[in-house]
Each structure stands twice: as structure tokens, then as C-alpha cells.
Design goal:
Blueprint (H helix, E strand, L loop, with lengths): L23 H17 L20 H10 L17 H11 L18 H24 L7
Helix pairs in contact: 2-4
């Protein structure tokens, strides 16, 4: 297992202080070049994007529940407030054009209120199952020939 890439593509959050983003194109290039190089060396590898089948998009119930399970001391439920409730798919055009602030003044896409650590454990189990399935698929694939 390689370490996670410490940077991401978060240009949609640039209206909020502290956003660090290398951009979608650069992030895709980093992953694609790393996978190509390793495969060229004859290594079996792939990049895996962790995602859930359902849930809100940012700082809502999903991420809050996960953090309540993983590090409850980092969560301030007393400050939790709802943001934009519509699914991210309905917001994508506006998000691309104007970023998160254009659809949610507080930056929340969803509603963190009511999230629980038990829900976070269930969501983490779902993420682990998805990762394990991707790894099983990779391990079952033929090893690439060394270039």
C-alpha cells in the first residue's frame, strides 16, 4: 500500500480560507503517472477512489458521522448547522461555475445534525468493503508484463 496523496483537487472550496488544491488535472496526472510507472515496472497496482453509495457531499451527516466514529473529540456538534440539502448531482453545474459558496454560504452540503458514531462505523465498514473488493479485483488480475 502506498501512502495517500496528501494534496487534493478542491478548487470548489477556494472561497473558504485554508483551501489547498493542486487542481483536478494535476491530481489526475499524478495518479495516472504513478500507476503507469508502477505498471511499467511490472507491478500490479491501481488507484482507488473511496466513495459511498449514498450520503451527502461535504461537512454534512456522512462526514460528521465518520468523524464521530474515528475521532469524536474533533467534532463540535454544538456548532453543527445544516447547509444545502439537495443532492450534489443537482448542484454540480452551479458548483462548477461558482464553487461551494455559491450554493451554501456556510460550506455545508448536507446536514450534520443527528449524525452518530454508530452510523459512522456502518459507513466506515461500507468504505472498507469497497476498498477490499477493489483490492480483491486487483489481486485476481494478471500481473502486467515488465516494460
Amino acid at each position: 500500500m502506498a501512502p495517500a496523496v496528501a494534496f487534493g483537487a478542491s478548487g470548489e472550496h477556494t472561497a473558504f480560507a485554508g483551501t489547498l488544491s493542486i487542481g483536478t488535472r494535476a491530481l489526475c496526472d499524478v495518479l495516472a503517472l504513478a500507476v503507469a510507472r508502477l505498471r511499467g515496472e511490472g507491478r500490479q497496482c491501481d488507484a482507488f477512489h473511496v466513495s459511498l453509495a449514498s450520503g451527502d457531499a461535504h461537512a454534512g451527516r456522512t462526514e460528521t458521522a465518520l468523524l464521530l466514529h474515528l475521532d469524536p473529540s474533533a467534532v463540535r456538534l454544538d456548532l453543527a448547522e445544516a447547509g444545502e440539502p439537495r443532492p450534489v448531482g443537482e448542484l454540480m453545474d452551479r458548483l462548477r461555475a461558482g464553487g461551494v459558496r455559491s450554493v451554501s454560504p456556510n460550506g455545508v452540503l448536507g446536514d450534520p445534525r443527528g449524525a452518530t458514531a454508530a452510523e459512522g462505523r456502518r459507513l466506515l465498514d461500507e468504505l472498507i468493503e469497497g476498498c477490499a473488493a477493489a483490492l480483491d479485483g486487483l489481486l485476481a488480475a494478471p500481473v502486467p508484463a515488465r516494460a
